[in-house]
């Protein structure tokens, strides 16, 4: 006969698995602009491939892995759960990162932020130019594939710059809340800038959507 604690645990676990089974699948978000809207800084061919092929692949893989993970949970197969976690991290991170990235860009972007975000950048990095130089340097220096990030530390109440390799999500791996991400995988720039990552990074500042970055900063301060 089951103990009271065991019966309680069973009542808790079964609804949890049921909610997983009824979850909605992840979907590819629409871009808030046309594929060619960021030209000449990022051309339409890159944007189309990056969004409709690369990001879509992360979404499709994430959905497939989550289904397998659910099966493993239902079977109590811990070995399978552990084996699936790298795929969850990679494809889940790819979906999270790109969903932020598209909104961080705008055909009306560029220039400098205003208001509280600009003041925070000056406080934490000395000036906007020093911040820009530091994030560019960190992004150029990512070995292989990855991301350069501006994040916010809730614990310290300050902005921080970080690099993440592959598709590691910023918050899930560092605890920093993502505000601005720069994709330095070659698929983000190779068709236009070849292997010259610094030229791509110089160009991308012309389409940074500071309104979006500011909204993210104000939200994480609440």
UniProtKB/TrEMBL annotation:
<keyword id="KW-0464">Manganese</keyword>
<dbReference type="Pfam" id="PF02777">
    <property type="entry name" value="Sod_Fe_C"/>
</dbReference>
<comment type="function">
    <text>Destroys superoxide anion radicals which are normally produced within the cells and which are toxic to biological systems.</text>
</comment>
<feature type="binding site">
    <location>
        <position position="183"/>
    </location>
    <ligand>
        <name>Mn(2+)</name>
    </ligand>
</feature>
<comment type="subunit">
    <text>Homotetramer.</text>
</comment>
<dbReference type="InterPro" id="IPR001189">
    <property type="entry name" value="Mn/Fe_SOD"/>
</dbReference>
<feature type="binding site">
    <location>
        <position position="50"/>
    </location>
    <ligand>
        <name>Mn(2+)</name>
    </ligand>
</feature>
<dbReference type="GO" id="GO:0030145">
    <property type="term" value="F:manganese ion binding"/>
</dbReference>
<dbReference type="InterPro" id="IPR019831">
    <property type="entry name" value="Mn/Fe_SOD_N"/>
</dbReference>
<dbReference type="Pfam" id="PF00081">
    <property type="entry name" value="Sod_Fe_N"/>
</dbReference>
<dbReference type="InterPro" id="IPR036324">
    <property type="entry name" value="Mn/Fe_SOD_N_sf"/>
</dbReference>
<dbReference type="InterPro" id="IPR036314">
    <property type="entry name" value="SOD_C_sf"/>
</dbReference>
<protein>
    <recommendedName>
        <fullName>Superoxide dismutase</fullName>
        <ecNumber>1.15.1.1</ecNumber>
    </recommendedName>
</protein>
<comment type="similarity">
    <text>Belongs to the iron/manganese superoxide dismutase family.</text>
</comment>
<keyword id="KW-0496">Mitochondrion</keyword>
<dbReference type="InterPro" id="IPR050265">
    <property type="entry name" value="Fe/Mn_Superoxide_Dismutase"/>
</dbReference>
<keyword id="KW-0560">Oxidoreductase</keyword>
<dbReference type="GO" id="GO:0005759">
    <property type="term" value="C:mitochondrial matrix"/>
</dbReference>
<comment type="function">
    <text>Destroys radicals which are normally produced within the cells and which are toxic to biological systems.</text>
</comment>
<dbReference type="GO" id="GO:0004784">
    <property type="term" value="F:superoxide dismutase activity"/>
</dbReference>
<dbReference type="InterPro" id="IPR019833">
    <property type="entry name" value="Mn/Fe_SOD_BS"/>
</dbReference>
<feature type="binding site">
    <location>
        <position position="187"/>
    </location>
    <ligand>
        <name>Mn(2+)</name>
    </ligand>
</feature>
<keyword id="KW-0479">Metal-binding</keyword>
<feature type="domain" description="Manganese/iron superoxide dismutase N-terminal">
    <location>
        <begin position="25"/>
        <end position="106"/>
    </location>
</feature>
<feature type="binding site">
    <location>
        <position position="98"/>
    </location>
    <ligand>
        <name>Mn(2+)</name>
    </ligand>
</feature>
<keyword id="KW-0944">Nitration</keyword>
<feature type="domain" description="Manganese/iron superoxide dismutase C-terminal">
    <location>
        <begin position="113"/>
        <end position="216"/>
    </location>
</feature>
<dbReference type="InterPro" id="IPR019832">
    <property type="entry name" value="Mn/Fe_SOD_C"/>
</dbReference>
């Amino acid at each position: 006969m089951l103990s009271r604690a065991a019966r309680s645990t069973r009542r808790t676990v079964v609804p949890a698995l049921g909610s997983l089974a009824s979850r909605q699948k992840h979907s590819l978000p629409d871009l808030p602009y046309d594929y060619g809207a960021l030209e000449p800084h990022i051309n339409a061919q890159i944007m189309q491939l990056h969004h409709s092929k690369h990001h879509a692949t992360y979404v499709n893989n994430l959905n497939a892995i989550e289904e397998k993970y659910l099966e493993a949970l239902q079977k109590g197969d811990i070995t399978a759960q552990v084996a699936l976690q790298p795929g969850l991290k990679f494809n889940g991170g790819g979906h999270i990162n790109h969903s932020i990235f598209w909104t961080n860009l705008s055909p009306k972007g560029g220039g400098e932020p205003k208001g509280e975000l600009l003041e925070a950048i000056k406080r934490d990095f000395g000036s906007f130019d020093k911040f820009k130089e530091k994030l560019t340097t960190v992004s150029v220096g990512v070995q292989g594939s990855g991301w350069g990030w501006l994040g916010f530390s809730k614990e310290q109440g300050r902005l921080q710059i970080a690099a993440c390799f592959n598709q590691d999500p910023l918050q899930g791996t560092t605890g920093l809340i993502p505000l601005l991400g720069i994709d330095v995988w070659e698929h983000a720039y190779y068709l236009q800038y070849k292997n010259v990552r610094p030229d791509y990074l110089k160009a991308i500042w012309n389409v940074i959507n500071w309104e979006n970055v500011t909204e993210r900063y104000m939200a994480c301060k609440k």
